[in-house]
Design brief:
Elements: H1 2-5, H2 7-33, H3 37-68, H4 75-102, H5 115-142, H6 148-152, E1 156-157, H7 159-181, H8 185-200, H9 225-236, H10 239-263, H11 268-299, E2 303-304, E3 321-326, E4 329-331, E5 334-337, E6 342-347, E7 356-357, E8 372-376, E9 381-392, E10 396-404
Parallel strand pairs: 1-2, 3-6, 5-10
Antiparallel strand pairs: 3-4, 6-8, 7-9, 9-10
Length: 405
């Protein structure tokens, strides 16, 4: 149903259906009060089985798209989790009562003795769930309860996060092109993995060690650009924005598919002709599509969700030498220190970085903003390193050198 009608239309149909179902359950309740038990059993059975259809084809899909893929960071997602847990309990109870009423399948020890109490409890829970479903619908689609948008008069969506993820995508597309131009298969495959993981996010089916080098590399925040696009489109409730989002999502899926092909290549020549179109499409999606979506969403009254930068830690001890990761560079990029000196790398910008030795001597792992990594040099020598997201071995891009004397 999601794919046939679209998210909002499916939600509308499901809301109407749930209201009809709860009316039907209450009709069944009054039929039982009038001792019309056969009619009562037929009505309750029809309502319980009909609800199964909407669980599988509407509510389950909506829960997966919004909570499983999108995370639990807002009130809608948290209410949906509560609704999902209680709804599962209510449906199981309903199925149990149908089996209890209409069959003799259940062993005696599993049969509820006070079936009237069980039926009324299930009806009460079901009624509360329909009310909660209306609240969730209002908050998610009408923005009239619980949300930031209530006070602002507009929906709130991750506009800043979407644009930042788009900027990251464009940057790593350029890194991909640069790596291919200098003939580095390993770097080309690595930056192709960056594109896949930026688009998919940690909960995406294609997220992971795409280039099979034994390490998962994700320069983003883990949510996934395609998830942000979907969140913004749903918050706008505007057919034009939804159409723009669908176009951009289609472009991102092509970029992801092509990037996967590049990341799995064993020969750069075999995929070199694919790099250019992949890079161009990624940049177009970022520079044109995401900008259009963001602008149209703001015109439609969507406001950005707040974004707070993590605080930076205090300065390291005076005995340590500090290198700052800023403006996509190591500052200073070349230093001379004494044997036994501990070098400290601090990331002071939102983009994720690493301090990775050219020869595998040390590796900071992913450094989000504010992260500190330390390594003590105990032997004299010249140590080259780079950022796996924005540089490469041999002093390419974001790279640095430490001379230990």
């Amino acid at each position: 149903m999601q794919s046939l009608f679209g998210t909002r239309t499916t939600a509308d149909i499901n809301l109407i259906a749930q209201l009809v179902l709860i009316v039907g359950l209450w009709v069944g309740f009054f039929l039982a009060r009038r001792k019309r038990f056969a009619n009562h059993a037929n009505v309750q059975t029809a309502m319980v089985l009909a609800n199964l259809v909407f669980i599988f084809f509407a509510m389950g899909i909506s829960f997966y798209d919004y909570v499983i893929k999108g995370g639990t960071g807002d009130s809608v997602a948290r209410w949906m989790i509560i609704h999902g847990v209680l709804g599962t309990i209510a449906e199981v109870m309903g199925i149990y009562l149908v089996i209890r009423m209409r069959t003799k399948w259940l062993p005696r020890r599993w049969r509820v003795k006070n079936i009237k109490w069980a039926m009324r409890s299930t009806l009460g829970l079901w009624t509360a769930l329909v009310v909660l479903g209306v609240v969730i619908y209002q908050e998610r689609y009408l923005d009239v309860t619980f949300s930031i948008a209530e006070k602002r008069g507009a929906a709130a969506a991750p506009l800043f996060q979407m644009q930042q993820a788009g900027s990251d995508l464009s940057m790593h597309a350029s890194e991909l092109q640069d790596a291919a131009n200098r003939g580095s298969l390993a770097a080309t495959k690595r930056h192709a993995e960056h594109l896949v993981n930026l688009i998919e996010g940690k909960k995406g089916l294609h997220y992971g060690d795409v280039d099979l080098d034994g390490r998962i590399e994700d320069p983003g925040d883990g949510v996934g650009l395609i998830v942000y696009v979907d969140r913004v489109a749903k918050s706008a409730h505007d057919p034009t924005i939804e159409a723009l989002a669908a176009d951009v999502s289609a472009q991102l899926l092509v970029v992801r598919q092509d990037a996967e092909t590049i990341a799995l290549a064993s020969d750069l020549a075999a995929v070199k002709d694919l790099v250019g179109p992949t890079v161009s499409l990624a940049k177009r999606a970022s520079a044109e599509g995401l900008v259009q979506i963001g602008g149209a969403a703001q015109v439609a009254g969507v406001e950005p969700l707040p974004y707070t930068e993590p605080p930076l830690p205090g300065s390291p001890a005076p005995s340590k030498f500090t290198i700052v990761e800023e403006d996509f560079a190591f500052k200073p990029f070349e230093v001379t220190v004494d044997v036994g000196t501990t070098v400290v790398w601090i990331n002071k910008e939102r983009a994720k970085h690493t301090a990775t030795s050219d020869v595998g001597l040390f590796d900071s792992g992913d450094q989000p903003m504010g992260n500190v990594y330390e390594y003590t040099f105990t032997e004299p020598g010249t140590y080259r390193y780079y950022c796996i997201f924005h540089g490469d071995k041999g002093g390419v891009g974001m790279a640095g050198t430490i001379i230990v004397e």
